[in-house]
Amino acid sequence: MAQPGDPSTGPTASETPEPTGRPGDPAPAVDPPEHASTDTSVDEYPEGYPHEWAADVLGSDGRAVRVRPILPNDAEKISRFHTSLSERTRYLRYFGSRDVLSERELRRMTHVDYRDRMAFVAELGAEIIGLAIYERLPDSTFAEVAFTISDQHQGRGLGSIFLEHLAGAAAECGIDHFEAEVLSENRSMIQVFRRAGYEISRSFDGSTLHLEFAIDPTEALTNVRNSREAAAEARSLARVLNPGSVAVIGASDQVGKIGHTVMRNLIGNGFAGPVYPVNSDATSVQSVRAYASVRHIPDPVDLAVVAVPAASMSEVLDDCLSKGVSTLVVISAGFSDMGSAGVVSERRLVSEARAHGMRVVGPNALGVINTSADVQLNATLAEVVPGPGRAGFFCQSGALGIAILAAAARRGLGLSTFVSAGNRADVSGNDLLQYWDTDTSTEVVLLYLESFGNARKFSRIARRVARNKPVVVVRRAVDDLESGVEGLTANAIGGLFRDSGLIQVDSITDMFDTATLLAYQPLPTGGRLGVVGNSSAVGRLGGDSARQQGFTVSHAVDLGAEASPEQFREAIADALARDEVDSVLTVFVPPVATDPDSYAEAIRAAAAESAKPVVSTFLAGEGLPEGLTVTDESGVAARGSIPSYPYPERAVSALVRARRYAEWLDRPAEEPAEYPDIDRARARELVDSLSQVHAGTESFELTQGQVRALLECYGIDIVDYRVVTDVDQAVMAADELGYPVAVKAMSDRWRTRSDQSGVRLDLADSAAVRHAFALLQSTTGSRSLHVQKMATKGVAVTIRVADHPIFGSLISFGLSGMLSDLLADRAFSTLPISPSEASTLLGRPRAAAILDGYAGDAPVDRDALVELMGRVSCLVEDVPELRRLAIDPGLAAPDGLAVLYATVRLGPPPRFSGNEGPRRLR
Question: What is the pTM of this model?
Fold first, then answer.
């Protein structure tokens, strides 16, 4: 079979149609987007060119590559690319020797319609290093696919990236299957298809393998893609934090200059590799030979720290690109931190850097630190930095970063690595999470996030990382997190963080309190606290704080002011040995003229004999006092060190946070429920039809008939009703439905009123219906009313789904009515939701006790509510177009559940927001 792009496929060159664009596409952008090739003018973009398919991606080696749809003026580049290929690579691609591509072949490759024929190129700088093509087979939803990678870039995972982007584009154009012809000796290409996560069928014809597979996203495919993305981003950050050499651009001998401070810190910290100062006006800087530019450095440069004015960045970037520097740490300000003009230059900086395979930390960054003995990198402006330790720290603000590093050093909290990303134009907290997840020297992750960037991706990655090591996040302003989701209060947000496995704190102090415990002590297995000390007053403060935060004080010992170190050791050991004690708070207030070191050694010795956590209020020191610290062979604080807090309340709060995290880890891994009666094909057909009708609309509300049809696909039935506009229609509807019935005003103003003034219930005959209809039309002013079959009486509840920029789709539960809305008595959970998570959600609203029976009423059927939430969860997972859903009210009764009313809003699914679509740097 001929290969896509061969002259033997499709019409001849003279018959090749010009690109016509994709039906329904918006007009082409006036300006090329950020990822557009830099040597292409606006006029050279054909009509319908899919700018949004362009992406910066990371190869498996962690270096950036640009992938974009091909352009007609790429012919010369494609010709050079083809000529650069080895004879072996050309043979495997074209099944024979082909030294030069003809004009006809080049035209066919570069002139595509971006729908039935599509081609992507991979670029590094101005050169194409890869080409991928699909071509739809006649009158089918199948397409043939092929791709070629230049010899020097094979093995970087570009084939897998091409396959993802081709599949993403094809799916948007109505193609659902790929097939490929591959020579059986082309093992590397066969492996690309085999390892992609698709279910592949194959047949063998002599020397050729015919491969065929559906490109619909599957769980296996998503897992493979996410795993590759995580590995690539981790390797990318490993390049940042483990450089073999560093250049300081703008290095200076002048004290007070940024370039002077960075240079001094690199040298003074004992960086393991060479440091190259770059200064065009000096032959040496701080007694190290200087170079006029990065280009003049004779050896390779891995990391360049930039400390020159923003106006000089273009020249610096050209030098670094020419030298092949892999990472820039831009400390210079004057970009997006200075307004809209700076935003443009910042985007240009990142775009050019990525296009040449580089990553950028910053601009306006404090810098990066790696305390490993093999690296000893301090490429920051910080005068005081912590010693080696187990915590990785990410923040944005440089000024805040300096204070954070100094505070960590005072507390004795050692760091493994530190990154301050400033404006976070490229490298973000998501990248660091991917790195720390695989970094064996990092056991605790600390994040101070002023913004979340790609928030959905953050949520996905953070949940995965939290299963392996604790992630502590300083909470941002609640107003930013609420994001317009009705009823989402500060407490609810805290619950969502806990549900995601993240340890949310309110301040840097709380972060360090928690991190010191997590880094050096085991997690508590329960909430029973033992208190041992020599001050009854301070001990009581700790006990009271524990009770207020949900712990119990199961054992308390006041040793008195005259207690000896040995008495301390025995009392702590006894408390730790008790089955009813899960953790111990020890309080030590030094008596006059007493050496505290012997007491610290006694406390440490007692704790060393137990696997339970011990914290202290050791008023002779804060953080990790010397006597409470266990050190490894290199003298670094190690597991078993006992953190000390100036107040017992802070010690207890750290224990409580650690216990909540332990509870999250202990939750069984339960999958969302599946329901065999769900008709996904019918639901997809309905949604596609509605989306086509409303194409170009930001979002749209479904009619009640459409809502009923969609929910029925998921086994959710709305109690039968009719919409009527006059009294005779009302009576006719009641007769048809069967008595008793209810007559309702369904506008938002009347539907959820707790006084039920917009509804008349239990209407037993036509006379009652006539009276109720006339009364409600007069009272509410509504022209149309609902006549609905009476459901079994129960507790009115509401279930809603809404989008959140950090947590993704959220489901909320509460009692229905204005009072619950006014008090924001709603509980929230992320989706998808498992049965046990749904059951937990039911108990979170303050009014949840009503579900268990109130004032003699029977308890409601909780299983029916759990099932309803499970079915809603399936709907949300299957229909990414769903923007909002509300079931309000549903009636929860002792013997089941009835849905009385629901609303649904659909809109275009979020593009590239988290799990969706092929990999890209976002």
Answer: 0.84
